[in-house]
């Protein structure tokens, strides 16, 4: 992605009793979001947590999803009107409340 | 990045009294790490935190750095011998203790 783009990360903190269906997320949720937001999305990535810094430790995040936009306006204008529908899909793949991080791409 | 690659994320949690020199990080630290790990690194990205999900909220992470490797072995064999030198550079740009997340690239 290009410097200056907006990266929106959706991070799913791991904990005992939490679950996350990575197959549903990759195959259903991501394509639903892509369909709703359309051309505003300039890139999307998904990662599955494997572990933390200490050997054998649990990953801080069960999964991370990242969307890239040209600008903050583009993110807000495309995501805002679809936020409710997107959030309503979460119980279909997880009982985790995600952390949202909005960042600027530097490198 | 390709499915199956290993993504190592270094996340710097934001809080009052914490500081992070994004210029030093982008211009000095990243190139130092790249020089030490060499060809093992298949990609590197840096993002600066702008905000959280709620309007006007502080970003959970002041910054995020991500390195991509072909495999867990490649990460461990290249990072392990250089970990001490890399960690010793942290006080030059931040007083934050980072969170390390090791992930598998899915999408």
UniProtKB/TrEMBL annotation, chains A, B:
Alphabetized InterPro entries for the sequence: Dimeric_a/b-barrel, EthD_dom
Domain EthD intervals: 22-95
Family annotation (NCBIfam families): EthD family reductase
This protein's name: EthD family reductase
């Amino acid at each position: 992605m290009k410097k200056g783009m907006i990266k929106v990360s959706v991070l799913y903190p791991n904990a005992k009793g939490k679950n996350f269906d990575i197959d549903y997320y990759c195959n259903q949720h991501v394509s639903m979001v892509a369909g709703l937001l359309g051309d505003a999305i300039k890139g999307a990535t998904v990662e599955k947590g494997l572990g933390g810094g200490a050997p054998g430790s649990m990953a801080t995040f069960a999964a991370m999803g990242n969307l890239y936009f040209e600008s903050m306006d583009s993110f807000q204008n495309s995501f805002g009107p679809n936020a409710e529908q997107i959030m309503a899909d979460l119980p279909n793949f997880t009982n985790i409340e995600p952390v949202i991080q909005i960042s600027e791409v530097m490198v």
